[in-house]
Structures are given as C-alpha cells and as structure tokens.
Amino acid sequence: MIKKSIYFKLCLLFALGLLLTGCAHMPVGIAASDTPLNGRKYDILGPTRGHDSGISFLGIIPLPGGRNYIKDAIQDAKNRKGADALIDITVEYDEINFVLLSIRKTTVYGTAIRFKNGTRTKQSKEVK
Q: pTM of the predicted model, to two decimals?
C-alpha cells in the first residue's frame, strides 16, 4: 500500500511538472533590409543567420549571460559573413518555459551584403 502511495505522488508530481512547462515558436517579422540602401551598389555575400538568447528566472528576472535582443542577433548574422548589412530578413522567436526558468532565443535569417566603393555606413566601419 505504501508503494502505491509513493507511486501515485510521483505520477502526480510528474503530471504537475508537465503542466507547468511549455514552449512556443513564432515568426516575428520580415524586413527588406536592416539598413537603408538608398540606391547604393552592393555585393551579395550569401545567406547567413545569427541568434541571441537569454534565460530568465520566473519569466521576468533576466539572468546574466544573455539579453535576447533582435539587434544583437542581426549583428551576429552580419559578423558571420563580414557584412555591412542584411537584406531579405526573417526573424523567429523561440521560448521554452520550465517551472522556474524561461529560455528565449531570437534567430535572424537573411542575405549578407557588402557595399561597394566606400559607401559603407558608420556603424559597419566601427564593427570591422
């Protein structure tokens, strides 16, 4: 009888744990570019992706190590190809919730470009 009671409590605890966890995946947005092109000529470097992630306690208190900003995910994608800008951008957001912790990840997909003839932006010069 005691074993059945312990088994029932473990099953109940497991079921409660499942109810308090979850995940979500959603497309956040699409953009033509992250920098105004204004008719400037550019070379296409190819497809790239970047991400940024963060962990929070109880879903509201961020823990050190990550902030999960879209701008950081875009910068990561540009750095992977040494690009000045991205075109044809798609952003996705993933979230996994546990009882006490939440993990959030933003992923940016796009095509990396490099501007021709000294038409780089001030920001792209600073990064390189």
A: 0.71
